[in-house]
Amino acid sequence: MGKRIVILNGSPRKNGNTSALVKAFTQGAEAAGNTVTTFFLDGMDIHGCKGCFGGHSNRACPCVQQDGMAQIYPAVRESDVVVLATPLYYWNMSGQLRTAVDRLFALEEGDGNLLRGHGRSSALLMAAEGHGFDDVVLYYDHLMEHLKWENLGHVLAGGNMGVGDISGKPELQQAYDLGRSIQ
Known about the structure:
Elements: E1 4-9, H1 17-31, E2 35-40, H2 69-78, E3 81-87, H3 95-103, E4 121-127, H4 134-147, E5 150-157, H5 170-180
Parallel strand pairs: 1-2, 1-3, 3-4, 4-5
């Protein structure tokens, strides 16, 4: 039986370079027999974390806020792999992705930690105009340590500003291969 993979796509472009990486990864993952659910975060109503510590991990919607995260929480709870996909914005993930990642904290609160550990793994897919990925990869590595998730690696595609610039580049094959490697 294949793995359940959730992709959080933090790009504002539905057909941009990050989305091309997501598509290639998804094709590889599905070819390996996995099930992939993708959330296009820019099209969802997701509010920033209030820092209220009012979450309860065992609730259907563990956060006190009722918004688009209510769709994401159950998918992440049931997942084996969570993929973070984002363009590089000021040496970090996009605001769309950072907001969703911050809100996942509700799964760590209250009645039991349903986020940290649990045999999950993760991968990072990024596209950018430049090549300054060091800071965001450091953050991602620290996040994986905190969550106790296996780090499956990352595909970092620099030199892609305009929509479609990634077309034909080796990073698309790398994303496919990373998805295909998940068994």
